[in-house]
Design a protein that fits this description.
By secondary structure, this protein is an alpha/beta fold. The protein folds into two domains: 9-121, 3-Layer(aba) Sandwich (Oxidized Rhodanese, domain 1), CATH 3.40.250; 151-263, Oxidized Rhodanese, domain 1, CATH 3.40.250. Helices cover 28% and strands 15% of the residues. The protein has ten helices and 13 strands. It has a five-stranded parallel beta sheet with strand order 1-7-6-2-3. A four-stranded parallel beta sheet has the order 9-8-12-13, covered by helices on one side. Helix 4 packs across helix 9 (237-247). The N and C termini lie far apart (55 Å). Keywords: Repeat. This is Rhodanese domain-containing protein. InterPro entries: Rhodanese-like_dom, Rhodanese-like_dom_sf, Thiosulfate_sulfurtransferase. Residues 20-128, 159-272 form the Rhodanese domain.
Length: 272
């Protein structure tokens, strides 16, 4: 009998009875020291920097296809595996992994709500050391009309009313009061949705309930039928926004992995 598909936003109590299930591939995108100290039983470690290509001027650019394929094979990403990802902060790194899975056409995945902080706060079982992965040999290809856009695409669509740009950075970064690149500000026409508004610190950094998230989306007048492109500074915070929107039923989602690290450091791009 086939197990039912797990929800995109997975609670700890939903994972607990399925620990050890061979259909699951639990991936920990925490820092190495934290992973060795404690991780969800059976979780395989994936260093975050292996998901990105940190070449100037960007800091979170999309990894070339061949190196990424080696990484996904090393951690044992089988065709039918259901990936459950988490990290030890706000799940931005874990969300970046799940967004990457969309890019390579692997649709079976969940985000462990609250990540490691929530898991530890509730005193669920943990393991120490490293879980050895079971490598595979698969071909991974970026989907032709995948979930990523580049700088040129944005330049060509800046005045496109059918597209909504969502900036997941802080209001200070968005306004230019806090500058982390050669220039401050935001991509013209973008709407600011600080990723922290999605999280509930009082509930171990879980995503807020669906009703509250929908209220935030409604306040910003974000239209589900439009193409929505998320970005931040290095596409970690905006990856979490991408996954949160996907959990609410948005299906015309893309993200700009170059984000402000690329756009703000390029002196030829327009800025507001």
């Amino acid at each position: 009998m086939t197990e039912p598909e797990l929800p995109l936003i997975l609670e700890a109590e939903q994972l607990l009875p399925r620990l050890g299930d061979e259909q699951l591939l639990i991936i920990d995108v925490s820092d190495p020291e934290t992973h060795r100290a404690y991780h969800v039983p059976g979780a395989v470690h994936l260093p975050y920097q292996q998901l990105t290509c940190e070449l100037p001027p960007g800091a979170g650019e999309l990894s070339p296809q061949a190196p990424l394929a080696r990484v996904l094979n090393r951690i044992g990403l089988r065709p039918g595996a259901h990936v459950i990802a988490y990290d030890n902060e706000d799940n931005g790194r874990a969300a970046r992994l799940l967004w990457t899975l969309d890019l390579v056409g692997h649709p079976h995945y969940s985000l462990l709500n609250g990540g490691l902080p929530a898991w530890l706060d509730e005193r669920h079982p943990v393991e120490e050391g490293d879980t050895p992965p079971e490598p595979v040999e698969r071909k991974f290809n970026y989907q032709p009309d995948g979930s990523a856009v580049d700088l040129l695409y944005l330049l060509q669509h800046l005045n496109d009313s059918s597209i909504t740009l969502l900036d997941a950075r802080t209001p200070e970064e968005f306004s230019g009061r806090e500058i982390r690149a050669r220039r401050g500000g935001h991509i013209p026409g973008a709407v600011n949705l600080d990723h922290r508004r999605l999280l509930a610190p009082e509930h171990s950094m879980r995503l807020k309930p669906e009703k509250e998230l929908n209220k935030i989306i409604k306040e910003l007048k974000i239209k589900p039928k439009q193409e929505i492109i998320t970005y931040c500074h290095t596409h970690r915070r905006s990856a979490l926004l991408y996954i949160a929107l996907k959990s609410l039923g948005f299906d015309k989602l893309k993200a700009y992995p170059g984000s402000w690290a690329e756009w703000g450091n390029n002196l030829d791009t327009p800025v507001e």
